[in-house]
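User: Could you write out the 3D structure of this protein bound to D-xylulose? I've included everything you need below.
Assistant: Certainly. Input first, then the structure.
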Amino acid sequence: MKKTRAHFPRIKTIAYEGPKSANPLAFRHYNPDEIVDGKPLSAHLRFSIAYWHSFRGVGSDPFGPGTIVRSWEKGTDAISIAKARMDAAFEFFQKIRAPFYCFHDRDIAPEGRSLAETNRNLDKLVAHAKGLQKATGVRMLWGTANLFSNRRYMCGAATNPDAHVFAYAAAQVKKALEVTKTLGGENYVFWGGREGYETLLNTNLKREQDHLAAFLHMAVDYAKSIGFKGQFLIEPKPKEPTKHQYDFDVAAGIAFLRTYGLEKHFKFNIETNHATLAGHTFQHEIETAIAQGMLGSIDANAGDELLGWDTDQFNTNVKEITLAMVAILRAGGLGQGGLNFDAKLRRPSIDPEDLFHAHIGGMDTYALAFKLARRILADGKFSAFLKDRYASYDTGYGRAIEKRRVGFRDLNKLVLTKLGEPTPRSGKQEYLENLLNSYLHG
Ligand code: XUL
Ligand code: CO
């Protein structure tokens, strides 16, 4: 790698110091090199840094502009600034020991006056990224296109009432797929952006959903034609920016994909804060995707219990993440997905060190949850309870129900002649909650 000035001169590579460490710039639970089941912890957790928050986020909110000023954001040439920013980003990825990063096309390179100029800008930064990836070993977890910031997309991209905007978005995603392939991106994410609506007074819901499906089919076809092998992921979100986002939650996503014959090509990128905005737990969304073999990746963050919008905070809730980890590990892990910190610093957290504190907290929380989940699964108490709770379906008429070998007539006869009244059994929720706490708090 071309030797660049250190952008985080006061911070060394973050070391694992164990649970007793009082060093705020050390890992207490995340030891990337620890071998678990024959591979390092870093390969189990596959942490990724979100370029948009950590290197484009400035802390702006609806009441004021950014508060975060970074030393590398200076000069007048947008391409040079973008390169310096990327150098800083890769220094951060290495120091925080994240094996992956993710970006939207527009995060890494500025838009030009035409699509052709924008693509040329992007090519310059992709070449720069390629060099940095090679020099550092940091890889691309997923790519995506920003189809929601520019004014042209104010009424959606693939669901825009104007076919011209649809065509522009198609051209943009074509390029984003090529870029993701060039950089070895392992997945490609479609988050709904502004694919939704505010009012049915100006919206044809059916046509918009048909158009979204046409767009995704085109993406599948194009990826195939260029030999892009990455996994396609839908990232559901119920609202924000639009009032009714079409990809409301995993269940709505499954119904949409099946309706339009897309289910074989997509899995889900599940974001904690999107799950809670939809009125679900994170674990619910994960289990719903797992039930259909469609868990792809995770956008690791948290909302605020008292706020009804996407606060994108770093998650330090060990209980919530342990429950998620139990589900993920039971399903065999994330495969080529990962844990992407789609999370941002609070507006007053303006020091470069805050980026480290935030990610250390997130990584330690996931690493601790991973270990607790493994212990929970190894002990097998919850699995034994579940197995026993459903045991009546393992044999006899219960098994025949699961196999769909009996009908109402058979069951009616069985109840009248043999079974009679069922004996209710306790659901034991309080016992199970206490059992969970015994893992979390000893
Ligand atoms: C928005 C969001 C996006 C996607 C990528 O809520 O989560 O940043 O993760 O477009
Ligand atoms: Co996200």
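The CA atoms of residues 290 and 331 lie 7 Å apart.
User: Perfect, thank you.
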